[in-house]
Amino acid sequence: MTSLLNTLANALEQIVLEVTDIEASTVLWLDGDSDWANEIFPEAKSQSAFTISQESAFLFDFLIDAKAIWQQQDNKKLRSGLWTEVTTQGVELHLEAIAIKQASRNLLVICNQHESFNIQQQTKQVAREVLLSYDRLFLKSEYLHTRLLSILNQPSAENSQILTATAKIIENAEFAVIVASYDFNTSIENAAALRLFSQDKPLHKTQSRPIDIILTLMKNQLPEYQRLLSTHSSWNGELCWILPPSTLKWLKIGFHPVKNKLNDVENWIIFANDISTMKHLIQRNEQLALQDMLTKLPNRFAFWQMLEKHIATKCAFYLLYIDINDFRRHNEFYGHDEGDKLLIELSKRIRVGAKATDYFARVGGDEFAIIINNIDSKQACTQVIDRLLTQLARPFYTEQGEHYNVTISIGAACCPIDAVSAEELMKIADLSAYSGKNKKQNAIQFYSTSLRKASFSAIQIERELRQAIKHQEFELYLQPIIDVKTNHINKAEALLRWHHPKQGLISPEHFITIAEKTGLIINIGEWVIERTCQIAKQISELGVNLKISMNLSPSQVADDNLYNHLTQCIEQTQIDASLLELEITEGVLVDDYIVAEQLLKKVRALGISISVDDFGTGYSSLVYLKKLPLDFLKIDRTFIKEIVTDEHDKAIVRAVIGMAHTLNLCVIAEGVETEEQLSFLVNNACNSVQGFIFSRPIQLQSFITLLQQQNQHK
Amino acid sequence: MIQKKICLLGASSVGKTSLVKQFVDGIFNEKYLTTIGVKVDRKTLSIANTELNFMLWDMEGNDSYNVFQERYLRGAAGYIIVVDQTRASSLHEGIDIHTLARQVTTCPAILAVNKNDLPATWHFDDSEYENYKRLFDLNFSTSAKTGSNVEEMFSALASLLLRLEKNDITS
Fold first, then answer.
1. Measured between CB atoms, which of A83, A120, A135 is closest to B87?
2. Pfam families of this UniProt entry (chain B) (predicted)?
3. Which of A312, A337, A644, B114 could form a disulfide with B15 if both were Cys (CB 3.0 to 4.6 A apart)?
């Protein structure tokens, strides 16, 4: 038996020692015999007990933990982890020790783990080389991207100066950098770009330009290509370039628009890195090739393969495309490390929310996708989504313990109802997520043909809005606000209208959301401020001191340039700032409290008054009412509509008026249409009213006439 | 002879093994070979006529494939957090490891900002970087490739340990 154990120990490259004195670390050699063992324990040759010396520092240290095992009564074992011991001959041994307590016997097994060591080293070597390469590529292109953007965004510099500066910066980059015009004519390409895309073609054949190769690859390999172009979005990802007979390159592409204030693309910056070597390294390890390094989830390629397999089974399933809202802003605010942490934490939470049978992957920078198996109803899919959202409702924490919340946009598409190819499914799920995107809240959007139409229509509206800004197709209408005590106009709200060249007059509800989503609201908002100041000036020149209020969107409140623009307009028109009022919705005041507070303090110091628009529709937290410098509350029309018949609405309006007066705020009721509504508001001490009962929003000239008529009747 | 256990810690690929190799054998190898587990090397230093034997515990870098194990710090007289000045993330990871190490030991800690033969690519502001450096007993900008400050770092650590030992004895 001993002989058999000895043979077994030798085969496993192990030696078994029995501990004879725990305190003195004295052991007796039981089984196993090999040169490597004799090298590390030369004193054991005498066949008698020997003491493990400090010569092997690692093993000697491990004995401290081992003693705790041997001194216990229960059967137990403890592994030391791998360590490397160098013999007197200079040979490296890769060992592991196991302390065992078994049937009251104390054993120490030393294993020669050279095979396990080699496997671990090969795997980790590849993994770490890949991590390093990604790290370096990311850092370099990120840095260059920031510098190029800052140069290309300089409005004052001469075009030629910009090009010279840009060319200088990119000329020595190790990877391909291309700067192209909005219509993809190359302005600059560096030497690395020409090297990377050089083609083995006969001399008489024209070489394709790097930009054309990249665009063709994107068009053929990215279902979201058209959406990226039409929405002027950035994209980072990998493309495979095959050009027979000898070219097969994996490219890591960064594709970024440079936009002007009108959100028009003026240039494209494109980075291309040859990551073929990295891919090769990755492919040496199948698991890594299909795995996302950061989250350890399957990557885009793995997901694609799985999606095709699922389609082939012909069983119904839902594909969810998940996009983190405002992830870029999060990265800019907290830094990339925190951004990575968020992606990891978010992926863990989604994992918890999903079932084990669902397939979940990271398919882009801040994009995840899930295949929800065996369901074909919207209702069942909504239940899954609700579970996911519950997981994300808890706050996330930064390294410093700061907490923040994240919202996501989910696009959902069903196979086979909505599409039956992987490409089409990914494309429509992505489109749905993008269409439903709402920066402040979680958004779920199921795919439908009307959605596709709406999406195309939104792109069309965005294009037309840009034209509208250029061609000044907007006009401000004014709606009078009446002082209940005097029954006279004491203020007017400026309301935006768009004279569409084909569709005629368009109200803001049809385009403001798109303007907000695309950033065009900043330009439109600036125009509104300029025009409001001009109108205030024109009316004041008639000898009437009438306040004009204008609406600010969330993006405008967050815009650093808003205050400067406002003061510039006031200076240019030389109006009294107290003739202006800003209307901000309560959502903005709560969400961007700090930003709003700073802005409101400054504008109020100028003499501009502030009103809270749509009051009562959003948030229950009223703390901001006490803390922020406010003047008016505008009760939303939804409470006024049923005020005569609905006891709840009556109670709410009375309570709001009471609370506002306690806080020294005046109240304006919006949407007043009937004498009964007016009578209720007058009887309950509402300060001002606004609505069709007095006047619809009207053009400036009509408003002036109305004012003049009123003054004649005074 | 006085024997001291010194641990080299840090993210993977920052140059821990190369620093030990440079210090012990005066060799640098361009090829990166990742360390698995632990390897203990020894080198004797002579500081002010006192012989000191350093047991240098070169440990596998910490990343998503290998988590930091506090137990390896047991009995350490000092530890060196190695970071790579071409990778800002390695400094953050180094600081994280230092925080974990501080939970189990109060022994002297050195920050070795390695690869000073290459241009630094991190863009920390001075106060941020100074705050990081202040967390350590000693700071060195090293290059395992050129040998810059490698000997100096280990000698300074040896002197510090001897001084602490002397203070212990006299007090």
1. A135
2. Ras
3. B114
- From the DSSP assignment, how many helices (H) and strands (E) are in chain B? 4, 6
Q: What is residue A655's predicted lDDT score, i.e. its pLDDT?
A: 81
Find chain B residues with C-beta within 8 A of A172's C-beta.
none
Q: Number of folded domains in chain B?
A: 1
Containing H/E element for B102?
helix B88-102
pLDDT above 50 (res A1): no
Segment A347-383, tens digit of pLDDT: 999 988 888 889 999 988 888 999 998 887 889 999 9
**Tokens at B58, concatenated:** 């070169």
Q: Least CA distance to B73: which residue of chain A? A: A61
> What mean pLDDT comes out for the span A330-343?
81
Contacts of A125 in chain B (CB under 8 A): 33-34
Nearest chain B residue (CA) to A120: B36
Running DSSP on this structure, what letter comes out for residue A233?
A: -
With H, G, I as helix, E, B as strand and everything else as coil, classify residue A647. Answer: helix
CB < 8 Å to B5, chain A:
57
Within 8 A of A141 by CB-CB distance, chain B residues are: none
- Give pTM, 2 decimals: 0.49
Rounded CA-CA distance A134/A124 in Å is 15
Are A470 and A356 in contact by the 8 Å Cβ rule? The answer is no
Residue type for position A203:
L
Among all chains, which residue has been given the structure tokens 């007043």? A672
* CATH number of the CATH domain containing B53: 3.40.50.300
Instruction: Give residue for tokens 């300089």.
Output: A154
Three-class DSSP category at B130: helix
Give the A-side interface with B, CB within 8 Å: 57-58, 61, 64-65, 81-84, 86, 94, 117, 120-121, 124-125, 127-129, 131-132, 135-136, 139, 143, 293, 296, 337
Domain of B41, in residue numbers: 2-170
**What domains lie within chain A, and their CATH numbers?**
2-112 (3.30.450), 127-281 (3.30.450.20), 294-447 (3.30.70.270), 459-707 (3.20.20.450)
pLDDT for B118 beyond 50: yes
Q: Which two tokens stand for residue A157?
A: 């510099």
Q: What is the ipTM of this complex?
A: 0.93
Q: What is the pLDDT of residues A15-62, one digit of tens each?
A: 999 999 999 989 998 888 788 888 888 877 666 788 988 889 999 999
- Residue A100: pLDDT band (50, 70, 90) is very high
| Tokens found for residue A514 | 């798109």
Which of A81, A83, A139 is closest, CB to CB, to B121?
A139
- The half-sphere exposure of A250 on its side-chain side, counting CA atoms within 13 A, is 12
DSSP state of A206: P
CB pairs under 8 A between A and B: 66
Interface test with A, best of B24, B34, B36 (most A CBs within 10 A): B36
Q: What pLDDT score was predicted for residue A45?
A: 67
What pLDDT is stored for residue B169 in this prediction? 63
Share of residues in chain A with pLDDT > 90 (%): 36
Report the pLDDT averaged over residues A188-195: 89
DSSP letter string, A490-558: EEEEEEEEEEETTTEEE-GGGTHHHHHHHTTHHHHHHHHHHHHHHHHHHHHTTT---EEEEE--HHHHH
